[in-house]
Design brief:
The protein has two helices and eight strands. By secondary structure, it is α+β, with helices and mostly antiparallel strands. Strands 6-7-1-2-5-8 form a six-stranded antiparallel beta sheet, with no helix packed on it. A two-stranded antiparallel sheet has the order 3-4. The longest helix is centred in the last third of the chain and has 13 residues. The relative contact order is 0.19.
């Protein structure tokens, strides 16, 4: 069954949180809080403004969002536990950070000081004389 929310409502699937704490302690399901992050499954057509025009929603299907702990109405569609909520109940869109690997460039290698055997030998000779 396909479900499409009406107006400014969105259908959200909760993203499961980690069952292990930062310290390495594994929490049982009963002790875990419900996650307040979710993935947008589908969105409505949008809300109407004062002039009667439809204003499209900011979020789209596939966005990772943050919402309040008690936001939305829990429903079961095709055996999945989902939430229906207004777009205004969403706090924001979580955007993945792009980690770019830092590569050593030729210019960085040129700028790095080069220690030669002669220089190190001179420094050790000076230290011995003192």
């Amino acid at each position: 069954m396909k479900f499409r929310p009406l107006h400014d409502r969105v259908l959200v699937e909760r993203v499961e949180s980690e069952s292990k704490t930062a310290g390495g302690i594994i929490l049982p399901d009963t002790a875990q809080e419900k996650p307040s992050e979710g993935k947008i499954v589908s969105v409505g057509s949008g809300a109407r403004n004062e002039n009667g025009d439809i204003v499209p929603l900011v979020v789209k299907a596939g966005d990772l969002v943050l919402f309040g702990k008690w936001s939305g109405t829990e429903v079961k569609v095709d055996g999945k536990d989902l939430l229906i909520m207004n777009e205004s109940d969403l706090m924001g869109i979580l955007e993945p950070t792009k980690k770019t690997p830092q590569k050593a460039t030729k210019t960085a290698a040129k700028k790095a000081p080069k220690k030669t055997a002669k220089k190190t030998a001179k420094k050790t000779a000076k230290k011995k004389k003192k």
